[in-house]
Amino acid sequence: MSDAIMYEKIGDIAVLAANNPPVNALGLAVRQGLIDGIERAEKDGAKAVLIYGEGRTFFAGADIREFGKPPAEPFLPDVCTRIEASPLIVVSALHGTALGGGLEIALGSHYRIAVPKARMGLPEVLIGIMPGAGGTQRLPRLIGIDKSLDVITSGRQVGAQEALEMGIIDKIAEGTPREIGLAYAQELIDAAAPRRATSEMPNPAPVDFDALYDAVLKKARGQLAPAVAVRGVQASSELPFAEGMKRERELFMELMATDQREGLIHAFFSERAVGKLPELDGVAPRDLNAIGVIGGGTMGAGIATSALLSGLKVTLLEMNDKAAEAARGRIAGNLQGALKRGKISAAQFTDLTETALNVATDYAALADADLVIEAVFEDMGVKKDVFTKLDAVCKPGAVLASNTSYLDVNEIAACTSRPGDVIGLHFFSPAHVMKLLEIVVADKTALDVVATGFALGKKMSKVSVRAGVCDGFIGNRILSKYRTCADYMILDGASPYQIDAALEKFGFAMGPYAVADLAGLDIGWAVRKRKRAEGMDPRARDFTYADKLCEDGNFGQKTGKGYYDYAAGAKARVPNPEVLPLIEADRATQGITPRAFTDEEILRRYMASMVNEAARVVGEGIAKRPLDVDVTLLYGYGFPRYRGGPMKWADMQGLPALLADIKSWAKDDPYFWEPAPLLEQLVAEGRNFDDLNKDAS
Ligand code: T1G
């Protein structure tokens, strides 16, 4: 027998304990160990079998690392079927997260018990597949179609209490999984409880599966897995168990072969890889208990909220009492939202707003802070003034962070006597909601300060990505390029509405012009004015229609009108009729004859501009690996997760074709479409971005 499943006989009970850290994934050795264990128990005179996991969890699912490789027997569905077929009573005792194949093992068992904190679910759709070891056939027989569809199409984790109410488990008990499992198995033996096979339960009553399929497909914004999973569940209602299992397998294999599965699994591993930097190995972060936030606008209040929710003490500094009270109100409003959603209790709300939060107007209040984040107006002079004052009051070793979204962190650091303690922490608005944190490492930033940035991100449940210093770091620098590409397409004949529609069809939550309206058109206006004042490269194209829109007081959602008119509400946007005439006038002045764009060309240009700039960002070392770009775009810019991120998407398209497109467009606009050296190099070497990820791991 393999060590992955440890066998022991205690009285009448054969105990199969999984031992495959960190999450007891159901790799080959575990699957084989389960089969061997059941067979041994049957020969060993046992009356019952207990299955549980050592360490932090019951099985967290199939071993995702085996996907894409040739499958090896025994397959997981057969393991579940073998467990269920045993004449002995089989009990699964759940703790930690019983997910995917893990829950399917439990469903193949005859009885299920869990500790109160256990969570369970079938999260396969989140990685682009569907349950493939009987989950779509056994769960509906156990709890009915509606509840199964909720669990399977959302991929959500269900807590033990809810699972008990739904009928997924039979019992909850306090103790270790081994203790509660042994006690329950003995209780069942003593009561002469029958073997109880889920697959032998009657087919669940049908629902209108076609309507559900359509509704789920629409809600998933182009992602296929949840809708395909509906068809799997449908089979549980319409077919005998064995045929239903075959149908599940076919659908499962179909999804396994998709780019969406590849993209989602890339996203899963990439978001875990971003925090793993060889230079931080063994580097301890500095203490992090109390932090300071300077500026209580939307951004500062969001950062403070996120910090409070993660258990940190926060001192928020504002210019005067009135502004300080307004900031307190903003933070309380954010926390009220958390209270309403049940994320915190009323007592916690009171504690966070009255004890953990302190608002102040004097820099001296920051003297004891372990880390201070400034979120003041985006202007170098203002930032330098703040950092000079911080340098004077903060204790030695305090981390001094700027939330700048594009300014030079080296220049900010240089105005202090301790540049090693200075770092960029770029949050995304609203900071208590958005998961991305760019950790901007300046030339002199000390390694333990970088480690502290990552520790803060982890505490705040953010996905943190390391970035180097440049205008816009990873995300905003790439954004600026693909936005410009879209703006040029408008000059040449596309409309903002066609561009938004094409990109939303691709899977972006919102197109770039709807996003601009949400963020405020005044932001882009200020950037354009700054760039013109600094002197634009004469080869860069320019345009005025967007400025005119702002000059007329249209800043987007906050003024009720921008590219769209929001008179009927934010979601009921309609094109603003003033926009197209402004664009036409601009084209006429510049002597441009508009031409038609297909949605496909819009997408290819937009994505190529994004990938080309991303290749520069990686080539220059601003992002250490292509996967850092992918995670940045996924978590900060609404890039569709099932496409894996722009670099993964580019790899799946094929880099040679992308480079050929760029070179063909460069004939008309060599300045904008200059190919990134790294892209040319990869194509010449016949390699792709994922090869660079592998080189770095
Ligand atoms: N396979 C392989 N490795 C896994 C894994 C898995 N299923 N789950 C986690 N890991 C690794 C992870 O990469 C990390 O590695 C370490 O474990 C700790 O994870 C037939 C088809 C379980 C809730 O989708 O949701 O069953 O980075 O850092 O925050 O129907 O991991 O340390 O090297 O995330 O405590 C369904 C995915 C599979 C579960 C733990 N199961 N995992 O979270 O730790 S499909 C899933 C998670 C399936 C059947 C099918 C979470 C977690 P490293 P972590 P965590």
From TrEMBL:
Gene3D superfamilies linked: 1.10.1040.50, 2-enoyl-CoA Hydratase, Chain A, domain 1, NAD(P)-binding Rossmann-like Domain
Primary subcellular site in the record, as a coarse category: other
Start and end residues of each 3-hydroxyacyl-CoA dehydrogenase C-terminal domain: 472-566, 603-687
A Pfam family it matches: 3HCDH_N
GO biological process annotation, one example: fatty acid beta-oxidation
Residue stretches making up the 3-hydroxyacyl-CoA dehydrogenase NAD binding domain: 291-467
GO molecular function, one term: (3S)-3-hydroxyacyl-CoA dehydrogenase (NAD+) activity
Metabolic or biological pathway: Lipid metabolism; fatty acid beta-oxidation
Subcellular localization(s) per the UniProt record: Peroxisome
Keywords noted in UniProt: Fatty acid metabolism, Isomerase, Lipid degradation, Lipid metabolism, Lyase, Multifunctional enzyme, NAD, Oxidoreductase, Peroxisome
InterPro entries: 3-OHacyl-CoA_DH_NAD-bd (IPR006176), 3HC_DH_C (IPR006108), 6-PGluconate_DH-like_C_sf (IPR008927), ClpP/crotonase-like_dom_sf (IPR029045), Enoyl-CoA_hyd/isom_CS (IPR018376), Enoyl-CoA_hydra/iso (IPR001753), NAD(P)-bd_dom_sf (IPR036291)
KW Acetylation (keyword) present: no
Catalytic activity: a (3S)-3-hydroxyacyl-CoA + NAD(+) = a 3-oxoacyl-CoA + NADH + H(+)
Keyword Chaperone tagged: no
Family to which the UniProt record says this protein belongs: Belongs to the enoyl-CoA hydratase/isomerase family. In the N-terminal section; belongs to the enoyl-CoA hydratase/isomerase family.
Protein name according to UniProt: 3-hydroxyacyl-CoA dehydrogenase
Organism: Antarcticimicrobium sediminis
